[in-house]
Specification:
- The protein is 41% helix and 17% strand.
- The protein contains 16 helices and 21 strands.
- It has a nine-stranded mixed beta sheet, sandwiched between helices.
- The longest helix is centred in the N-terminal third of the chain and has 105 residues.
Amino acid sequence: MPSERDLIRQIQHHATQLATAVAAAEFWHGRILDQEEKVQRDRLQAAEDQRQQAETKARQAYGQAVSRQKQRLMQAEAKHQSALQAAQSGYLTQWKQVEAGGQILSAQLDDHVAPWDSTFWQGWRPRPGPGAPELVRLGQLAMRGTYHTLTMPVFLPAIGSRSLLWNVNGQARKDAIPALQSLLLHFLAAIPPGKLRFTFLDPVGLGQNVAPFMHLADYDPQLVSARGWTEPRHIEQRLAELTEHIETVIQTYLRNEYATIKEYNEQAGEIAEPYRILVVFDFPTNFSEDAARRLLSIAQNGSRCGVYAVVLADTEKPMPHGFDLADLERASTVIAWDGERWVWDDEDFRDLTLELDAPPPPQLFSQIVKAVGEASLEAGNVEVPFERIAPSPEAWWQASSEEGMHVPLGPIGARRVQYLDLGQGTAQHALIAGRTGSGKSTLFHTLITGLAMTYSPDEVILYLVDFKKGVEFKGYATYELPHARVVAIESEREFGLSVLQGLDAELKRRGELFRAAGVDSIADYRKKNGKQMPRILLIVDEFQEFFTEDDRVAAATSQVLDRLVRQGRAFGVHVILGSQTLSGAYALSRSTMDQMAVRIALQCTEADSRLILADDNPAARLLSRPGEAIYNDANGLVEGNHPFQVAWLDDDEREAYLVRIRSFAQEQKYRPSQPQIVFEGNAPALAAKNRSLNGLLAAPTWPQAARRVSAWLGEPIASQTTLPLISPPERR
């Protein structure tokens, strides 16, 4: 067994071997590490060299790319600058063209669209004439470009335009009111005086918003519908009147002949229909459901009839039940406040800035309003020459009255003529009413003169009784109108009654003739006997004078008049009664008036309109000028209304016609079978007109003295006449 020493030696030997092995391992490990480090260093160097090479290449490529990009950018910038310069040049060219076009347009536009600070308004006066402007000024639009800001005036069509709706709330309402006043003033200045009428509805402002325009009422209340209306019932009434006017224009004037009132007015001349603007502030305050519905109807249908709505709507207030503001917007040009600016709600202008005009200084405002008011007084006198409707000389005395009378009174619209037709159906007698200055006397003169030119005295004879304190009918006595059998001027009630009684006796006489001939009408009598029995036309002006006293004259007159209008139809006796007002004519029975189917209403109050036409027909209250009238042959029913203008026949022209008619009668060798009876209440009796005395003076000898002496004291206040039959017509 090895000894301990051997074991130690073995251990030491092994330790030495281990140390040698470890040293060898460390040596080789170091050698391997050095080699590996060298390999890694070589690899790293190679990688670094590759990186540097790649980076160099990349830098070179980047530099080349940057250079190429710079070149592209430079080329693009050059192209951009070139295009920009071309665009700027084209922009400036176009801008100059727009500015030049605007200057040309401004030069061509009417001066009435000039802004209020223009020198045009210094010393301005309204222009007369039937024409109307195409445009009115509202403000201006601003289009802001990169290099310029283009400002363009804003105009609205003055005629035929849509309604205008301003949607406002809060402070915008206060800003809109002056702009609206400016627009309305432009309308007033542009449209010929008397051809524009406002209807103002101002329920919140109580008329304050339209106060500057109220000066017009001092000249003609019709220009501003008398006042600014505020209460619900008044608002409904004004809207109903405008709706009624639109109906009249469509059915009477436009029909299927004219597309718009402008076309009609171009043909109508003197009787051109005024344009109307409905101005509503603070809609829908005080508007009922019916009123809102009427407003929408006016906005939708009024423009072609010359009725335009300008509505300031408060969008914060609830609308009437069943009313949708969008319906009104569709029928209107809309201007709205979007919280920052005014917007014209139009596809072309929505993105532009709308700047509304302010009204002119108060002094200029009042100057324009008063100038228009003064000019409207003269423009309101519409005179349609009588010669426009008068029968041609070739037609004088050519008409037959066998079936009735057909006499021109004046034009209906632009092309038609209104005739008085009596003798057919229920149209046998007529009532005429019109206040002082309405043209009633002119109507009578037009009727009488036209009738005397159309029919011979063998066809129609006239009984003329005038109770007025004037001499309206005197010319028919002075010029011896052959048709006038009786002419009473400033007549006494007793003389008027005697005329009626004489006609009553004629009724009885004709009745006996008809019974003997076996006929029941004047037409049948003339056909059967070949005799020219003339029709009789009794005209009594201011007939209510018959009934100023409750006495036998009034009672007898009422009875005879009633008999004449009831029985006169068959015997060719016709009655026309005229009055300034019917409100005091209650002694004439209503049943008598009801027999008079033809009604002619001139300017009068609403009460008189209901009396002469019908209880539910106040249309005559809307008549606005002398000579404007309503002809109704349906006992006053609304559906029988026919507006017309009485032809104008001044005194000189009428006298000239009377002279020509008298000369024509002489040429025809006509001599009346009975002398004309003239009663002039304020004139003394003239001995020269005493036929008995003149006969004695002209006699070669006088009769032997009688036991009794007759003395002439004057002329009787009575008419004793008999109308003979003429077979053949007497010509000497």
